Design the sequence.
């Protein structure tokens, strides 16, 4: 069972999370900008594998080299630790692509 995090738990997790994640309308939100469209799609493909593993899927929008991410746990109508786990994975994936690794 997924548990909705309290506002204190969300604030604590947000402090640890880097790369400009914010909370808006009970969603964890970030925007990534890549060098190219190809890099943005590479990110989507790599992250999609983790999403399937976790059975947790973001709302995302891709416009050329930019991706907007919205995370929340739909079945609890809020933010869970799963959202932060996926956000951390996204940050690591973004850094690898950005650094060319």
Sequence:
């Amino acid at each position: 069972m997924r548990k909705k995090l309290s506002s204190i738990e969300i604030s604590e997790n947000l402090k640890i999370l880097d790369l400009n994640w914010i909370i808006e309308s009970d969603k964890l939100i970030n925007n990534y900008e890549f060098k190219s469209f190809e890099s943005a799609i590479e990110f989507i493909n790599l992250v999609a594998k983790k999403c399937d593993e976790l059975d947790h899927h973001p709302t995302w929008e891709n416009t050329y080299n930019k991706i907007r991410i919205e995370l929340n746990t739909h079945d609890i109508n809020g933010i869970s630790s799963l959202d932060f786990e996926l956000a951390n994975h996204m940050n690591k994936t973004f850094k690898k692509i950005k650094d060319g690794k």
